[in-house]
């Protein structure tokens, strides 16, 4: 099976306490390498500059035709304190190009404006299963390049699944957590995932299914959402079961956090994810809306 990922590769400078780490990342890398753990072929639609170590993608057998740019790679400075983080955009690469693809799933997860509205419309036309993480559609910067979120009306017609946190959801729709999930569903998304730190909810039709990740010490949270999204997509395509997809996604996020690793080193093996997923499957709560 094949997953196409639409997102920029990035070079992140991650600060945790007194320690600094320079890591390659971006949703492109996190989603792509996670999908490889599930034996998916991965086509990357991205852009990165000559400063990006493309051999890392080659070593992981990720296809990245037409991704190279003369503009330097998108770069963020990320400061992490517990479950919270702040971002500063230090460089922005060229926008993504796209001319059609026959993948089983299209995962759109921009990190900063690299997917234009026209490209998004084109992806929708080609997609069999479309998953959207809208973070990069919603981000803006101030005069000092600090990243924050802005309100944006995103057309979710033909979107199969969307993953948001409460702050992102509030930039698109109004109301309580439940009301925002319903509003996103009404805009077109069949599956609505709301991640609120350790609480994860999934709205399907008129039911909310939820799991809670064990509240342990958190180290580097960079890429956790991307690992979650990619795992959900791969499991949905293979198992055709949204509950298993939810539990596998939660299991992958938990395994990544448990590793205490920084950057791409935290991407978990499928066997570890599977063990966690079985644990969560027995603890899923559900309620009617």
So how many helices?
9
Which strand-content bin applies to the residues? 25-35%
Order of neighbouring strands in the sheet with most strands: 4-1-7-8-11-12-13-14-15
Mean pLDDT, to the nearest integer, reads 94
Describe the structure.
- By secondary structure, the protein is an alpha/beta fold.
- The chain contains nine helices and 15 strands.
Spell out the key features of this protein.
4-stranded mixed beta sheet, single chain, 289 residues, UDP-N-acetylmuramoyl-L-alanine:D-glutamate ligase
SSE topology sketch:
Blueprint: E1 2-6, E2 10-16, E3 19-25, H1 26-37, E4 41-45, H2 55-59, E5 74-81, E6 84-91, E7 105-108, H3 117-126, E8 130-132, H4 135-138, E9 139-141, E10 147-149, E11 161-164, H5 166-170, H6 177-186, E12 191-196, E13 199-204, E14 207-212, H7 224-239, H8 242-258, H9 270-281, E15 285-288
Parallel strand pairs: 1-4, 1-7, 2-5, 7-8, 8-11, 11-12
Antiparallel strand pairs: 2-3, 5-6, 9-10, 12-13, 13-14, 14-15
Compact description:
It is built from 9 helices and 15 strands. The protein has helices at residues 26-37, 55-59, 117-126, 135-138, 166-170, 177-186, 224-239, 242-258, 270-281, and strands spanning 2-6, 10-16, 19-25, 41-45, 74-81, 84-91, 105-108, 130-132, 139-141, 147-149, 161-164, 191-196, 199-204, 207-212, 285-288. Helix 7 packs antiparallel against helix 8 (242-258).
């Amino acid at each position: 099976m094949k997953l196409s990922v639409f997102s920029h590769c990035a070079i992140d400078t991650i600060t945790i306490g007194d320690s600094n780490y320079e890591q390659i990342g971006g949703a492109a890398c996190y989603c792509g390498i996670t999908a490889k753990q599930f034996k998916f072929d991965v086509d990357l639609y991205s852009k990165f500059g000559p400063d990006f170590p493309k051999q890392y993608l080659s070593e992981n057998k990720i296809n990245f035709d037409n991704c190279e740019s003369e503009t330097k790679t998108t770069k963020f400075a990320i400061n992490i304190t517990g479950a919270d983080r702040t971002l500063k955009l230090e460089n922005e690469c060229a926008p993504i190009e796209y001319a059609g693809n026959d993948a089983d799933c299209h995962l759109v997860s921009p990190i900063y404006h690299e997917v234009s509205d026209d490209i998004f419309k084109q992806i929708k036309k080609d997609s069999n299963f479309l998953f959207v993480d809208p973070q990069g559609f919603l981000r803006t910067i101030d005069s000092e390049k600090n990243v924050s979120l802005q309100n944006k009306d995103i057309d979710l017609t033909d979107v199969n699944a969307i993953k948001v946190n409460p702050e992102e959801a509030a930039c698109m729709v109004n109301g309580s957590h439940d009301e925002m999930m319903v509003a996103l569903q009404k805009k077109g998304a069949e599956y609505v995932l709301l991640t609120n730190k350790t609480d994860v909810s999934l709205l399907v039709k008129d039911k909310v299914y939820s799991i809670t990740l064990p509240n342990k010490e958190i180290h580097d949270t960079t890429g956790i959402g991307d690992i979650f999204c990619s795992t959900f997509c791969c499991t949905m395509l293979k198992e055709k079961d949204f509950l298993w997809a939810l539990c596998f996604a939660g299991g992958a996020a938990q395994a990544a956090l448990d590793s205490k690793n920084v950057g791409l080193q935290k991407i978990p093996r499928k066997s570890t994810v599977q063990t966690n997923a079985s644990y969560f499957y027995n603890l899923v709560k559900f309620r009617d809306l």
